[in-house]
């Protein structure tokens, strides 16, 4: 057979095969009818450290128990959509990841700005080496000088509305290691820049160089979706009206251990609790509601940054569903662990098991914070010390109380919807706090017990955990209660 004819046959077969692969529904032809893109069933990936909570309905509020406390929790049946929830409260070690990210991003931004101030030209990486500017390493793309069309566009249009250059994390080089040891600083300009992150000499004790935590601020943007949904008419400033920029100081208030208790020697907790390795697996405290919300925004950003990097390698585009604080009703639904009308996450009605051991970290008696010698703790305890509830959630009662996203209102149970009820975040500066803590009596450990705190307040007994929604009908393997 003629070689040319063989080549033509092979080429024709190859093109035919490629066309077959490109054909989708309706044979890949446009016959004037709308045919949706075919997709397989999407199964969400369970985030690390989180457990799935199935959709369902439950009886909200107090049942079978009559208390003298005014709890504002009348009985009502509501329905809740499914979501993932952290199986433990956010720990000190997890929150330190957030603090360290903010510290590093600020340092890199300062170094990049210093390089620009000293005249480093990003299009000529050698200019930094020739002038001895180590800070040039922290500008993205400075290794090879290559810039995309998008990079050039951002540079040409980088001036903000107020004439300031916005901090654009995409322009920072995160592959370059930072030097924190003062004896390893590469040059004087680097030293002068980094030193601005530390307390000034007149504010130091015993000449100890420590990071000035007042400078550790995280910026993020959120949209008031509820307010936008209720807006009538079309306004040119519609999106701007409901766009909110937040700048939050992220370092926990460690002085809460002293301020929360009068005439009490809690100085060791104030000095060591957040940063010392011994407390890494203990729940973070001293965080305000705003700081908890900022942590959720960072957790979402961190996950999305990873997926964005993976997209560059695989070409697959994806975006994570936002992490957030649970609503007050989501929290109570999850705390019940699938049990109806039970007073505690483990069921009840007792606070001890059949061996007389307490089932949570709380204040068992007046003045006695540590009666249970087996698992007794003066303050908070390590997460996962006590048994999980039916959904696999630890410390839904005791250890630390937890922030929710819902504003607090006495009439909340009566006035809200029975479908995923909540109260808008901006309705009040009082935010619902649930679960009871290490300093509370047994009553506040009940799943129906309600409490609140002002959103700007930080306490030694309030922490938080995050949730992530997933679509209805997702194929998820849920924990079966034993």
Automatic annotation (TrEMBL):
<protein>
    <submittedName>
        <fullName>Gliding motility-associated lipoprotein GldK</fullName>
    </submittedName>
</protein>
<dbReference type="InterPro" id="IPR016187">
    <property type="entry name" value="CTDL_fold"/>
</dbReference>
<dbReference type="InterPro" id="IPR019866">
    <property type="entry name" value="Glid_motil-assoc_lipo_GldK"/>
</dbReference>
<keyword id="KW-0449">Lipoprotein</keyword>
<feature type="region of interest" description="Disordered">
    <location>
        <begin position="24"/>
        <end position="47"/>
    </location>
</feature>
<feature type="domain" description="Sulfatase-modifying factor enzyme-like">
    <location>
        <begin position="48"/>
        <end position="467"/>
    </location>
</feature>
<dbReference type="InterPro" id="IPR042095">
    <property type="entry name" value="SUMF_sf"/>
</dbReference>
<dbReference type="Pfam" id="PF03781">
    <property type="entry name" value="FGE-sulfatase"/>
</dbReference>
<dbReference type="InterPro" id="IPR005532">
    <property type="entry name" value="SUMF_dom"/>
</dbReference>
<dbReference type="InterPro" id="IPR051043">
    <property type="entry name" value="Sulfatase_Mod_Factor_Kinase"/>
</dbReference>
